[in-house]
Design a protein that fits this description.
Length: about 110
């Protein structure tokens, strides 16, 4: 059974940083492309970042986060990460990791002074 558990969210001031984690289990983590999405209040779910399988050589970012966010993976730990820098109030959302049509419970990120 595929399971994804996100963590690391919280309240941060504008300009601050957070690092999200997604612990994965129930599948061969290294062989799958992994994605981070977010959903802000009243908005559609948005693809934030994507990382290719195995060595994660290929990464893709949404236009709104390019240059500020970095997606990475540790295949030994079956964990996906999202480093978020220079956070803005508009980054406030619930962040989810995704694979194989499975979603975690999400982690809330709130950017506010």
């Amino acid at each position: 059974q595929v399971r994804l558990v996100e963590s690391g969210g919280g309240l941060v001031q504008p300009g601050g940083s957070l690092k999200l984690s997604c612990a994965a289990s129930g599948f061969t983590f290294s062989t799958y492309t992994m994605r981070w999405y977010r959903r802000a209040p009243g908005k559609e779910r948005e693809l934030v970042a994507q990382i290719s399988n195995f060595g994660g050589r290929t990464t893709t970012y949404g236009d709104s986060v390019k240059g500020r966010y970095t997606i990475s993976r540790d295949n030994d730990k079956n964990t996906l990460y999202l480093q978020m820098n220079s956070l803005k109030p508009e980054d406030t959302a619930v962040y989810y990791c995704n694979v194989l049509n499975t979603w975690g419970q999400g982690t809330q990120v709130t950017v506010s002074s």
